[in-house]
Amino acid sequence: MSRSTSFGTPRERISVVRVDNQNRILKEVSGEDVTELLKEEIEAFIDKNPDVDAIVLKSKSPSCGYRTTPILNLEKEQIGLGNGIATELFLKQYQNILISDEKKFIDS
To answer: What is the dihedral of CA 17, 21, 24, 27, to 10 degrees?
Structure first.
């Protein structure tokens, strides 16, 4: 099923927000929940790329942060750090490869 929401550029900023004990991806201004749409796009990427050697992610990103993504409450206050939505799916799918963010390569 195709959806009308677009993640082109420029786009509305997104955040990881804890809603009913689940991390959801919400657009910051409109509050639209785009979690499922992002999951579909990430799963399509995984289907097209079953054999990868490593994944380098963007730190602090709501989609690709690795242990550095701010998790917010509904009042937009940071309540912790965690993984972005893509990172969670990549960790499940690609269990035997290097998955890190760009900071590991910059700091090396």
So the answer is: -40
